[in-house]
Every structure is written in structure tokens, then in C-alpha cells.
Design goal:
This protein is an alpha+beta fold. The chain has a domain of 59 residues. Helices cover 56% and strands 15% of the residues. It is built from three helices and three strands, in the order αααβββ. Strands 2-1-3 form a three-stranded antiparallel beta sheet, with no helix packed on it. The C terminus is likely disordered. InterPro entries: ATPase_P-typ_TM_dom_sf. It comes from Streptomyces cellulosae. This is Cation-transporting P-type ATPase N-terminal domain-containing protein.
Length: 99
């Protein structure tokens, strides 16, 4: 959220709100602060959705490897390949090309 407040436009609006309060025009200051709050809220919601989308895409694209482990052929996450696994080239997710 603090990242949203570092945006140059938001900083200008915050300075404008402070100056408007200093001049005694509270209604204009309230409008400016309302805009800052709405903009920050929209930015935070957008960031959260973006992070969720990236996580979902990462889960979909997690590389897998076809291995023979304990005399059984299986697909495992590439990070889960351990010494002793026999890696099957071109094989990963079941149904992938190379099967």
C-alpha cells in the first residue's frame, strides 16, 4: 500500500491537500483526499489481483519431469527430482508429447 503513496501524482495530490487545508478550504481538501483514497484502494486491489494471477500462472507452468522411481514411471515436479531418479527425456506431465 505504501508503494501506491509513492506515486508522483499521489504525492502532488497530498501536497495539494495539505496546502488546501492550510488555506482553510476543507471541502476541496476532502475531495482531494477522497481521490487519493480511491486511487490507492484501486491500486492495492489491482496489485493483489495481479499477484494472484502470477501465482496461478506459475502453478500452471510449473515444470515437471518424467522419472522412473522405485521401478515406477511417474511425473514429478522438476524441483522434486532426486539422486537415483532416472529422468525420461521429453516426458513430463502425463499426456505431454513424447509419451
Amino acid at each position: 500500500m505504501l508503494q501506491q503513496l509513492r506515486d508522483p501524482l499521489i504525492l502532488v495530490l497530498l501536497v495539494a491537500a495539505v496546502l488546501t487545508i492550510a488555506t482553510g478550504d476543507l471541502s476541496d481538501a476532502a475531495v482531494i483526499l477522497f481521490v487519493v483514497v480511491v486511487n490507492t484502494t484501486v491500486g492495492v486491489v489491482h496489485e493483489v489481483r495481479e499477484e494472484q494471477a502470477v501465482r496461478a500462472l506459475s502453478a500452471l507452468s510449473a515444470p515437471t519431469a518424467g522419472v522412473v522411481r522405485d521401478a515406477t514411471e511417474r511425473a514429478v515436479p522438476a524441483a522434486g527430482v532426486v539422486p537415483g531418479d532416472v529422468v525420461l527425456p521429453g516426458r513430463g506431465r502425463p499426456g505431454s508429447p513424447g509419451r
